[in-house]
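Lecture 7 notes: from sequence to structure.

We start with a single chain of 439 residues. Read the sequence below before looking at the structure.
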Amino acid sequence: MIWVELVVVLAMIVVGARLGGLGLGMMGGMGVALLAFLFGDRPASPPIEVMLMIAAVITAAGALQAAGGMDYLVDLAERALRRHPPAITFVAPLVAYAFTLFAGTGHVAYAILPVISEVSLEAGVRPERPLSISVIASQQAITASPISAATVALVGLLSAGSAITLGGLMAVCIPATIAGVLVGALVASRMGKELKDDPEYRRRLAAGELKVHKGQARPAATVQAKLSVVLFLVAAVAIVFFGSFPALRPTYALGGKTVQMGMADAIEMVMLTAAALMALLCKASVEEVAKGSVFRAGMQAVIAIFGIAWMGDTFFQANAAAIQGPLEGMVQRAPWIFVLALFAMSILLYSQAATVRTLMPVGLSIGLPGSQLVGAFPAVNGYFFIPNYPTVVAAMNFDRTGTTRIGKYLLNHSFMLPGLSATFVAVLVGLVLQRLILQ
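Now the structure, written as tokens:
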């Protein structure tokens, strides 16, 4: 029956991924129902703690957007891009990386992709090059950001039985993913013909379809917008400190024992406090927070994790005896198999956080040390593989020259080579660094 159950689980994942957004969570919930009522599996506990942490972070990011802080960050990003137009293939992904590292969500890339496209066109650089690697950089940064849903989920899993701190995770993942992004940028810088020689660009230029739009002046950022950025940054730094130095978290007497505040509680308190201060001090409308694109996308991720992680936990717990032995033997003989499994699952789930909640517990259960899971963490960035993720589609639409595109055979698209290069290097460097830093 385990194979029949596995088919059901995979079918729910595939259909949920095709539905997109909330569909992933809905199909995950249906999968739990089928496993419970049809196969008699006991439902696992829903990942409530992870969901609450992510909801708190998304609320703070939504408040940042409502206060105008996100627009202020976009303005800073545009200035950085326009300082070095010819080097945009290397500057743009670093800006996208920093943007996502700070905001904790790759969806902020939507704000800077049109800027990257226009600056590239003005500089005569093939837009495919900076756009493709910038999308990949925004994905890689998720696995380095201290407040991303994926990092929060992994820290939550490791905090129970591992001495690995958030600071240790970042010490491995930040240099590893930056190395991956830089190699990916080098690969992207050599893709395709020069813009002036590209036939599609020449056709559009001859047809009068292209006009260069010089950057327009933006209204000056308000004091409240700048303050919201400061508050968000302080909150992010506070989380890093609480995660890196557990002694900073208070302790309590409980049943004759001394219990320390968990990292999940610390994250929730800090981010909700930041959101509250933005509402009070920065005029962040509570209604606008809920309407903003960052909040909507983040809450969709919460529901997706709810359903998919719940289904995955139910399946693995019900079949642990049958799965654990063979899988443990395979991974011990060839540890890279688990890395490939993370990459493949992320392609199916379109979510780093959902991939972490689905497979990382399996890695822990078969005896993989937490340090190795941290090193392999960037492998969850595989959802560029099939070119229908929103940021991928957005990048193609923002490129008015037509150089960023899907090839004849679907998988030979603009994001494949930069994505594979960045992910491979990030995982390789991560596995090396975890040996030097965490062991």
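The CA atoms of residues 56 and 272 lie 6 Å apart. Keep this in mind for problem set 3.
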